[in-house]
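Follow-up to my earlier ticket, as requested here are the two runs.
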Amino acid sequence: MSLKFRLLTYINFLLLIAVSIGILVVITSAQKNVRQEILSTLSLAVFAIENGVKKNPEIYLFQNEGDTIGLANLNELRHLKIQFFDSTDQLRDQTSSDLSALTIPPKWFIENIEKFSTIVPEKKINLKIRGKNAGYILINPEPLYEYSEIWQQIKNGFYVILLFFGLINSMIFIFFYQTLKPINSIIEGFRKLEDENYKARINKTNILELNIIGQNFNKMVKKLRESNNKIHKLSQDLIDIQEQEKKELAINLHDELGQSITAIQAEAASIKKNKNEISRIQALDSIINISKNMMLSTRILIKKLSLGILEEMGFEIAINDMVESWSKRYPKVLINYAFDKNINEIVPPLMARHIYRIIQEALTNISKHSKPKKIIITLKVKKNNKEIEIKISNNGVFQNSNNQNGVGLLGMMERVKQMDGIIKFKKKNNFEIYIVVKPNL
């Protein structure tokens, strides 16, 4: 169900409740008013009979059989039915009611009204002439007039209610159609977003709430567009890096392993040709040394390509080995390194690989873009062994210190995001990377 029809349903339901309460109030009020009118008429009739007919029976009562007291002439009397019975309980006279102009309510309505109506008791007045019983007058309420008046009021109110409902629904429908019309632009914006159209935008309207939704939507689209651009850039940079790594790997294999193999082949050929035992032994020693260098170069290449060192040596030793290796390559740079051994107890394997690569990338960026004299690397546990804090800072000047869109930094941020952590780049007297990650305990 759409929002417009749902709102219309709720409003009509509330209106129906209000109208139902109104109808009950009208019926109750009508019953009360008609009842008061009946009681007033009944009191007047009793007063007139008791002070007229009862005190002067000879004047009003018939002298001969067949005479009446004139009740039949009271044809305009409403709400009451007055009957005269003689001493033998024979009906001799009664009021006449003209019901031709009366709107008779339906039977079901009369039955339901009688369930909630208070019955007005009949009134009996005995008549005597010279101490002898001359009969009695019986006064009964005539409820048909009461029911007819209530039914007529309800019918008139029903027509008014129908007109009221029609006008209200028309006004509400027009109002909501105009008010909720901007929602269509929001729906269209999300459809464009599903189609990866990151240029979708919701224009400003005259409705505050929809403007807030539109502003948040536009901000979300902007962030998605920026994230999408970063992803595309990262994908392209990763492809370039892969190609560069393949190229460097090929060069390394050619320059180091290729040359070593060529040298081994040359030494082997000389052994085959040379008959001098000393020269042959020297050639064999040369082959052994070349093979050792090949193994060392191969290990270095494998260490760069794989993280098997983490499984072989453990997280702490692997980080120490990386820092020491970097320090040997740059002996003029002082490294202050601190590792909290409690990390070994809480860091899972996947997080260990991420942290290793983050520190590796940070040191690579420092070697490429900075000329520091001092580097500080600290890894410690904080907040009841539930967080790992990593700080990497140096006092060198970064050539691209304001550029945080490089593939290296993007890769670091992505790894931190996968660990549900935060990363901050600070620039005060030196350049500092501050990382907090939460291990899954």
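Run two:
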Amino acid sequence: MGDKEKEIRLRRLDALADSMGKDVVKMMNDDNVFEVILNSDGKLWTDTFDKGFVNTGLRMDPDQAKSIIYGVAAFSNNVIDLEKKPYLEAEITESALFGNARFQGELPTIVDAPSFNIRKHSKKIFTLDDYVEQGTMTLKQRDIILQAIRNHQNIIAAGGTKSGKTTLLNAILREISKTQDRIIIIEDTPELQCTAENHENLKTIDPYIDMETLLRISLRKSPTRIVVGEVRNKEALTLLTAWSTGHRGGCSTVHSESAVETLYRLEEMVSQVSLTPQQARIGRAVDIVVYLKYYSTKREIEDIIHVTGYDKEKQDYITEKLD
């Protein structure tokens, strides 16, 4: 980035800080707060580690909220089209204001008044040992995950909203980075951090380059392990194929309601591009599912299963509970 670009970026950051105001900036710098939420009724909420959702008692007028949304758009080099796309999905990166964050903003007419969510990315990369110390996982669960990494098994971190899937994936990636393997990381939102010497990050460009395209590209980049931030759609089939044909030892996240349900969620995604069921492929590709549960203010690993195949007669996956 040249001096002129840096100067423009700093001016935009200053403008964004002014539009946010001291209260929101203070929330964003509070380590106990991981999300700042403005509802269209003007009420400001935070989501915190110790208390969950908290009504701050503060209100924001629609003009200020609109200014913040447009300020984030300018800072992240996005354009808002009120007719075709009256919302903003953006990343606030390399910000001296409060670090990195994911921004989701909405404008009328899909809401009554401007609203937004600012989800802060964790400043710290937790280790598996940190998880044990916090009580998120047991020593046995940690050892199961470490052994799966050493054995080049494919791992899916699954869970619902706010369960900590990406944070766990970062902890797993930290252990993978200690190997000599070449790692290709694919994301649509840059949240994964890799310290491996030999790695490459690929990011989607909406609407031109999607996860499916990046997965095909990654297969020509000589990966040892393929890591995908989150599998959501048709890219599931390509990833499963890669994981079961010479690129084992990868990891990803899937939004689901239980460890076993994760496998059926993959079926749903694969069905978008496949006319025939791919249960056998899923049974071959997925080795370990680590399921996280969010309990108001606490996250725990509820279940770890080992997937060994698919039973056609019983029409069910063959799994073994490990923890």
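The only thing I checked on run two: The CA atoms of residues 273 and 322 lie 32 Å apart. Let me know what else you need.
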